[in-house]
Design goal:
heterodimer; A: mainly beta; B: alpha+beta; 3-stranded mixed beta sheet; 23 helices; 10% strand
């Protein structure tokens, strides 16, 4: 404490010194004035500086300032978001100024790797998302905030469970077997283990380096693009306190439309009728009794079915009949139990953030605390997160500054049980509790259908994450004390990222998973510590018309991972969860393991920025990276890049073309890398093999993977041509980029014939190409003097992804589902044609297939697929690439209408022409399990696209032809109405700013997709893995997207 | 901060040193581990693990037992392995059926590579201090590795025919793999097994390690298999039968193994390491050692007992996957009066499990499980309960339907009547029983209980109750899903009634089979006298022994008399004239007319009787080139489907193999793939 006080005195003394110095050298007169903004609101915090000096002041909360200046001086007024103005002092003593808003912030400074540049000087392809855009939606994580905001950055959720973040793909997928996630750079430090714990409200700006010329300065980690995140810093303004709060009420966006009791019962009858095991076209009691009582030993099912009949004598099961002797039956009267209702809920979601910024001339501090509490729309799912942040920048000396960003984050996720998936797996004619209120463990009497309704209490799956991010810097400006060294700076950055992840899972004996046997406990934890150290030397110099910047970097870093996991059955007290596993009655765990991985990286990088006449710009970089994960001969590699830009609007011939306010042409080329390999691969590995001799454990070690000493980096060479433009005083502005990225030396698990003893070997083979166009457009459609303003943001991106080569032999890899000329995740299967009909034509056609040689056994009512080669044999030669999960294009439109403090905005996100490959699209029509409410073929309903139910076909024959569907969607992500209270009212209650809003999140979804949210079901479960066996629709069904009503406020004090 | 900065900066100083980027492989073992004796011991142990693949999923029955004259589909088989019974178009390498062909192929070649590495490394062990400290130890381990390699190749060659053959450790990117003719594969197998038979010891201190007898048994079996070829070219030699008999007799006479006195004891879960077992894949109850490939055989041969009144699923009766349905042939070739094996193999009586309490009284002994009617007095339970009585089924109240009854724990609740056409009940007798009956045959009768028609399928009859109301009742016959369970794999040492991870050893070879191999080899050389000796040894053991309690169904349906405890050994014996004429119970196909053929088909029958459901049948029928003919005689599903062809005696080569291999440095053309593939696929 004492130390702090001392520091404060020192600071005050220092400030005083500066002030006195100012008084001494500034002469003549005192100038006062008021600075106002667009709506004549006073602008506090505007910097007023005498040109060519560091002397000046800032405006007070009323926008007033006072400064000493001479008649020859020029005052420079600058403020973020406004055009900088210069005013000659002359004879004036009062200078009132109305500043003009800088519509697209051309002069904004933009963060690029290892530094910042003026936005107009950018040479690469880069998208920015501002803190204002982040705040437009109540997002839980950073990735959500980017969706639809940055062209060419595809953000898609495959999991809407609270606490889960969507995935990001920048300009398509490149790597076939490694991940395609971009690298995040948080306050200058690379972060490799996800960014989900960062509070988006702490973010000042996000910059996405899309092309290689920009990203290549990150070399071997940059192939998938780079996302730079800058957190808010303390300003040197007066202290301000801000409080953001929102409450949200969430409901599921869609639910599956399942067959009701009557429909399902009829499907079960039909599945027997179609194979001659149900004799009447209408329901009859005798056979129903067999179907719904004898073979479904749950009397409640029979009770439900009996409700469909009209009874003569229910006691003795004598049914009423009509005049033709047909039982009187109404399927609508069959009891239907709505299982989905029981597992869904309205989730309450609250988000608070309190932040404090402030500082003095040489000290800036930001302190913030955030709290998020989210309930899922499926019972048992929840997420809670606490963020704290302290960012400090301190400049004690003219030539030295240092600072840090610290954030500590705690998150608690209740993952929830497999509730929704199991609920829709329940028979509509079954009920969860019998008439006495007893829980029915197997509703419907089917051993494989287990009642999940208590699972949100019986199953606990809790994940805790504690994460600390810290980055620290110190910088020496040599020019400040040695003028020949003007422009030379040395900076050291240190970063730390510590993540502790823990999963505790407990299932009681009574849970549906354990099914009355014994309880189950599982404990799993991972610790990851990553550090980075960077030494940087900068040299910036203007020599006449030449503008030179040089950056040199040397860095090193390491990531260390360790984990442990244990599973036991049968602990004595269920209340102890996973915390006392040693007490298990079974005496031994069923599974236990620990693991450790470490990798290191070192880099050298040099960059030159050169500007000529503020018209011609050149950036060139060369990076040299080494990693521990490759064998020493292949450890080091170069990643070069360059970019050229031409600021056409600064040419003299452009000055007369007034409609064009900005025009810049850019071209860049670069090579980036990807550490696609895993640790410890180069020398081959052995795997544990279990066995017993009698009762004696006989573990051994078998060869697992072949040594891969030859492999090196995956590389991407990318060309980018871009145009930035602003028209009509930037009423219309935007960016267009086209690019061509070729990824080569892909690290593939090259499949081997199993005869070798191995399934695959790692090798650098294969090429993938991504080409595309991206457009970002911003328009001010209306801007009246009365203050009515309508703005539109548009993003559009189209990417073509294709595998160019796999193993050098121009052959597809059918086994892995990789096809040359198609995207990585392509779906290869039979093409659905129609249903075989009971017509003479079809009978004749079927006869051609149904010969012993041709092996067909088709009957009317079954699926007919396209016989691609027309040989009347349906076999795998008839499978074709149906499509891929890559959308044709994605885009977003935001419209904002503002008037006198009111703002109405809406954001629509588009994803067009994506393929979905999902097993759920194929109905199970064997009459055993529930099914979506779809029609199906019967002899009297021949137009359905689904086959006839068949008890003997657990899965419809050739049903895989229905796995694939192509779909598009437009999602209105939000409609927001907000009101900013005018200063005139606020000043009376001593509030600086107050904004309140009400928002509908995801109010509308337009799609023809049949299941839940098409955004989540793109088959991305394992990134690019097209193998249908690894597509687990349950994961997405259990993580439903929601629509919400949000109420919120932002208060500044 | 300082705390971190200093070590970090010091690392920076080291940056120019190469070590900073060196990987220290703390958590991973590398290939150089095999340069040590412990490494090779670990490698050899890992050569045993792939043995477990055979029973780890539904391939257990799909590749080895279904689609034969012995077993066909049950009511749930079509969901998984129906194509392996029907040989339908779904048995398609390009689709790789749910019971994966490539999974089997990959497993065995991976196993072979493990063996190849071991065979390559064992001679290089120097300075061993453990088991391989001397040449003898090395030879034994070499014998194990060579036995296992031969075992895996023998599995492959019987299923796929000509196959790629590699006897060296993998060099990684090898892509040219022509098919090696069957005779060469057999030569390699015989070379390995001969080495093993001579180097391996009679016993090993580790239970489950290969012994000399295991090598002798398989060497005999390989010779028998090669020599059984009729039209096929397996490289058969005139001396094959002599060699088979020689090694089988060595195995029998070594004294390392012996037949157990009682057939049922062989499958006693509490005595799995019994003297009769020559070679078994090892499992035990330790959960952490049951990962990966598991023994799931306990699932497949069970009936749906748990859906009948009074029956809950219990660990003692198993989790019924209902995949396997015995053919009439397999049930009817037994002399059930004298031969105890069928009744000891099948579980026909189920006691009520209608409780959720764990009553130790319900842990049956092997005899009760396999065999008895036991605690129900024969005729007292023929009483009729009145409709309207309250019964409890699955804890829910039911009004008594006439076919349902109330059960106490342990009451007889479910009975499968294993009768034949001559020993039957009437429909009315079945109704009057107090428990559920599934009868193989029964008589439909009129109101006076005069027989109308002999039935072997369900029928619905109308009965008039005491109160005059009419009720329809279904009389149950055996049908898919409703047949006796096979006792041999039942496993109540699993962790839970639904646990799929079985704990029993899988018996790959037991001495009774060695006797039958020896018998067949002698018979095929014309030495029927010795063949009869071997056969009668097995058959005498199969008889009821004096003093042995016989089941109720034995005197009810098999022609026995109540209370009789005489031995039947004498009646089980045959002599060399047995094959001079057709014997009705042997049910020879009509094309079997010579003594030689009768002998071969008799051996198939005897193997079926002795080895029912032991996953040997498919290979037996392929061995004698009788798969097609006998399936079309005895497998009703195959007869009905009509999709089986002669070429189905070989499995398809996995499509992934065809897609990945090369010839002349390029991938195979479609035509070359067809030529490489087995015919008919």
């Amino acid at each position: 404490m004492k130390k702090k006080l001392y520091l404060k005195h020192l600071l005050n003394a220092f400030l005083l010194f500066l002030f006195i110095e100012g008084v001494c050298f500034a002469q003549q007169k005192s100038i006062t004035g008021t600075v106002v903004g667009t709506n004549n609101e006073p602008l506090p915090g505007v910097t007023v500086i005498i040109k060519g000096t560091s002397q000046g002041t800032i405006t007070n909360p009323d926008g007033k300032f006072s400064v000493e200046a001479g008649e020859e001086d020029v005052l420079v007024f600058s403020f973020v978001g406004y055009l900088t103005e210069e005013v000659d002092v002359g004879t004036k003593t009062v200078i009132d100024l109305a500043m003009v808003e800088d519509l697209i912030g051309i002069e904004e400074v933009v963060v690029v790797g290892y530094g910042t540049v003026r936005k107009s000087d950018i040479t690469g392809a880069l998208s920015s998302v501002s803190s204002e855009q982040i705040r437009e939606l109540p997002v839980q994580n950073m990735n959500q905030a980017i969706q639809g905001r940055a062209a060419g950055v595809d953000v898609f959720s495959n999991n809407f469970r609270p606490g889960e973040a969507p995935k990001i793909r920048i300009r398509g997928n490149r790597s076939i077997t490694a991940d395609n996630d971009p690298i995040y750079i948080l306050d200058g430090i690379p972060v490799v283990d996800g960014i989900n714990e960062i509070n988006p409200l702490d973010i000042e700006s996000i910059e996405i380096l899309k092309d290689a010329s920009a990203a290549a300065i990150y070399g071997s980690v940059a192939a998938n693009g780079v996302i730079l995140i800058t957190t808010r810093r303390g300003s040197k303004d007066a202290v301000s306190v801000n409080y953001d709060v929102s409450y949200s009420f969430d409901k599921e966006i869609r639910r599956l439309d399942m067959m009701d009791g009557g429909e399902w019962a009829e499907m079960r009858r039909e599945s027997n009728r179609s194979i001659g095991l149900y004799s009447t076209e209408y329901p009859n009691v005798t056979e129903d009794r067999n179907l719904f009582l004898i073979s479904m030993p749950d009397v409640n099912v029979w009770e439900s079915i009996k409700m469909g009949y009209e009874w003569e004598d229910e006691e003795n099961e004598i049914v009423a009949v009509d005049e033709e002797g047909i039982p009187i039956y109404n399927p609508d009267n069959v009891r239907t139990y709505d299982w989905q209702d029981q597992v869904l809920q309205t989730g309450l979601n609250q988000n608070h953030q309190l932040s404090l910024t402030g500082g003095t001339e040489n000290l800036g501090v930001l302190l913030s605390v955030g709290y998020l509490n989210q309930e899922g729309v499926i019972k048992g799912q929840a997420y809670e997160r606490i963020n704290t942040r302290l960012n400090v920048d301190y400049e004690p000396l003219k030539w030295f500054k240092a600072g840090m960003s610290n954030s500590f984050n705690f998150a608690l996720q209740d993952y929830g049980a497999d509730l929704y998936n199991k609920a829709i797996g329940q028979l509509p004619v079954a009920i969860p509790y019998d008439s006495l209120g007893n829980f029915i463990r197997n509703p419907g009497g089917d051993d494989l259908i287990k009642n999940p309704l208590r699972d949100n209490e019986e199953i606990t799956d809790e994940r805790r994450i504690m994460r600390y991010f810290g980055s620290y810097y110190a910088e020496i400006n040599f020019g400040s004390f040695l003028s020949p060294l003007e422009g030379l700076r040395f900076r050291t950055n240190v970063g730390q990222d510590f993540k502790h992840w823990r999963r505790g899972e407990f299932k009681t004996a009574q849970s549906s998973d354990q099914d009355g046997s014994v309880n189950y406990a599982h404990y799993d934890q991972e610790q990851i510590y990553t550090w980075t150290l960077e030494n940087l030397l900068y040299y910036d110099k203007n020599i006449g018309i030449h503008n030179i910047g040089v950056t040199l970097l040397q860095s090193a870093g390491a990531r260390r991972f360790e984990s442990s996991e244990i599973e036991v059955n049968n602990v004595p007290y269920e209340s102890q969860l996973w915390y006392q596993m040693q007490t298990t009655i079974d005496a031994t765990p069923t599974n236990f393991e620990t693991d450790y991985k470490r990798r290191q990286i070192m880099s050298y990088m040099g960059r030159i920025n050169y500007g000529l006449l503020d018209k011609y710009l050149l950036t060139a970089t060369l990076r040299y990276d080494g990693t521990s994960i490759f064998y020493e001969d292949n450890r080091w590699d170069y990643f070069p890049s360059f970019a050229l830009a031409w600021k056409i609007n600064n040419e003299s011939f452009m000055q007369s073309i007034t409609p064009i306010s900005q025009l810049k042409l850019r071209f860049g080329y670069g090579v980036t890398g990807h550490q696609g390999a895993r640790v410890y691969e180069t020398d081959g590995s052995l795997e544990e093999s279990i066995y017993v001799f009698g009762n004696i454990p006989a573990k051994g070690y078998a060869p697992e993977k072949l040594a891969t000493r030859e492999v090196g980096w995956e590389k991407t060479a990318q060309k980018n041509l871009g145009l930035d433009f602003g028209l009509f005083q930037n009423r219309v502005s935007g960016t267009i980029d086209i690019y061509d990225a070729n990824t080569y030396d892909l690290l593939l698990d090259r499949n081997l014939p199993a005869v070798t003893g191995y399934n695959s070997v790692r090798a650098n083979v294969g090429k993938v190409r991504n080409r595309g166009i991206e457009v970002t457009l911003y328009t001010v459609n209306v801007n009246t003097s009365s203050g009515f303003k309508w703005e539109t943001d548009i993003t559009f991106a189209k990417n073509k992804e294709e595998i160019v080569d796999l193993y050098g032999d121009d052959q597809d890899d059918i086994g892995n589902g990789w096809f040359i000329g198609h995207p990585i995740a392509s779906y290869h299967d039979y093409e659905y044609d129609r249903i075989w009909q009971n017509t003479p034509e079809d009978s004749a056609l079927m006869a051609l297939y149904n010969t012993p040689e041709h092996g067909g056994s088709f009957v009317a009512g079954e699926i007919k697929v396209v016989d691609q080669n027309g040989d009347t044999i349906i076999n795998t030669l008839d499978r074709v690439v149906l499509g891929s999960n890559v959308p044709d294009w994605t885009g977003g439109i935001t419209n904002r209408i503002s008037f006198k403090g009111f703002e109405l905005s809406a954001f629509v996100y588009f994803r067009w022409g994506q393929g979905i490959y999902n097993r759920r699209l194929v109905p199970q029509l064997a009459g055993r399990y529930p099914e979506r409410d779809i029609g199906y073929w019967t002899p009297t309903n021949t137009t359905s696209k689904y086959p006839q139910p068949n008890r003997f076909q657990f899965f419809p024959d050739l049903g895989e032809s229905l796995y694939y569907t192509e779909t598009s969607f437009a999602k209105v992500r939000n409609i927001t109405l907000s009101y900013t209270f005018p200063q005139s009212i606020l000043s009376k209650v001593r509030v600086n700013s107050l904004n309140v809003y009400v928002m509908a999140v995801n109010p509308f979804l337009f799609t023809d997709y049949e299941l839940l949210d098409p955004e989540a079901q793109g088959g991305y479960r394992r990134d690019t893995d097209p193998n249908p066996n690894s597509l687990d629709p349950r994961s997405t069904l259990n993580a439903m997207s929601s629509k919400s009503i949000v109420f919120g406020a932002r208060i500044g004090l | 901060m300082k705390k971190y900065l200093i070590p970090l900066l010091s690392i920076l100083v080291l940056a120019s040193c190469k070590d900073f980027l060196d990987e220290e492989q703390v958590s991973v073992l590398k290939y150089d581990y095999y340069e040590t004796e412990t490494g090779i011991e670990d490698l050899i142990r890992s050569c045993y693990y792939p043995l477990r693949y055979k029973t780890s999923y539904e391939q257990a029955y799909a590749f080895w037992n279904i689609g034969t004259d012995e077993y066909m589909k049950s009511d749930e088989t079509d969901f998984y392995a129906g194509m392996y019974n029907d040989y339908s178009s779904q048995l398609d390498p390009e689709d790789d059926p749910q019971i994966s062909i490539s999974g089997f192929w990959n497993n065995d070649y991976n196993a072979i590579d493990r063996c190849n590495v071991a065979i390559d490394k064992i001679p290089r062990v120097t300075g061993g201090t453990g088991f391989m400290k001397d040449q003898e130890g090395k030879d034994i381990r070499m014998g194990e590795a060579r036995f296992l390699r031969a075992y895996y190749y023998f599995q492959l060659v019987q299923q796929f025919g000509a196959i790629p053959l590699t006897l060296d450790p993998s060099a990684g990117l090898e892509l040219e793999w022509p098919r090696i003719p069957v005779p060469e594969v057999y030569d390699a197998i015989i070379a390995d097994l001969t080495y093993a038979a001579h180097k391996l010891p009679e016993t090993q201190s580790d239970i489950g390690r290969v012994t000399a007898n295991a090598a002798r048994h398989y060497l005999a079996k390989v010779y028998l298999t090669r020599g059984s070829a009729v039209t096929e070219e397996r490289g058969q030699q005139p001396t094959d039968m002599d060699s088979a008999a020689y090694y089988a007799d060595l195995c029998i006479n070594s004294g390392a193994n012996a037949l157990l006195p009682n057939y049922a004891d062989v499958f006693d879960i509490d005595n799995q390491e019994n003297a009769e077992i020559v070679f078994a894949t090892q499992f035990n109850t330790e959960q952490t050692l049951l990962d990966g490939h598991q023994n799931r055989t306990h699932l497949f041969w069970l009936n749906q007992y748990d859906k009948d009144p009074g029956m809950f699923r219990r660990i003692e009766y198993g989790r019924p996957y209902r995949r396997m349905y015995a053919t009439d042939y397999a049930l009817d070739i037994h002399d059930r009066l004298n031969d105890s094996r069928l009744r000891k193999s099948l579980l026909t009586v189920f006691f009520s499990t209608d409780t959720i309490s764990t009553n130790p009284a319900l842990r049956w002994t092997k005899y009760e499980l396999g065999w008895a009617f036991h605690n129900v007095a024969p005729d007292t339970s023929w009483a009729v309960r009145a409709p309207g009585d309250t019964v409890y089924v699955r804890k829910l109240k039911f009004k008594l339907a006439p076919s349902m009854d109330f059960f106490s724990l342990g009451d007889t609740a479910l009975v499968f009547l294993m009768n034949d056409k001559n020993t039957t009940l009437t429909d009315k007798e079945i109704i009057r029983r107090g428990y559920t009956i599934y009868a193989r045959y029964y008589w439909l009768t009129d109101d006076s209980e005069n027989p109308i028609e002999l039935l072997n399928q369900d029928t619905t009859i109308t009965v008039i109750s005491a109160n005059g109301s009419q009720n329809t009742i279904t009389i149950n016959a055996w049908k898919k899903g409703k047949i006796p369970s096979l006792y041999k794999y039942i496993d109540y040492n699993r962790s839970d009634k639904n646990d799929e991870k079985g704990t029993r050893d899988v018996f790959n070879a037991r001495l009774a089979e060695t006797y039958l191999i020896s018998a067949e080899a002698y018979g095929r050389t014309g030495d029927y006298a010795t063949a009869v000796q071997r056969i009668n040894t097995v058959r005498r053991r199969a008889a009821y022994h004096a003093g042995e309690e016989k089941p109720i169904q034995w005197w009810k349906f098999d022609g026995g008399t109540p209370g009789n405890t005489d031995g039947t050994e004498a009646a089980m014996e045959i002599n060399a004239s047995y094959w001079d004429t057709d014997v009705e119970i042997e049910n020879y196909p009509s094309y079997v007319t010579s003594k030689e053929d009768r002998f071969i088909h008799f051996m198939l029958n005897e193997r079926c009787r002795e080895l029912l459901g032991e996953m040997l049948r498919w290979e037996d029928l392929v061995r004698v080139e009788q798969l097609y003919d006998r399936c079309y005689l005895f497998n009703d599903d195959i007869i009905m489907m009509g999709t089986m062809r002669q070429t189905h005696k070989l499995r398809p080569i996995p499509q992934t193999h065809l897609d990945l291999i090369q010839t002349e440095g390029r991938a195979l053309t479609d035509q070359e793939k067809i030529e490489y593939q087995n015919p008919g696929y």
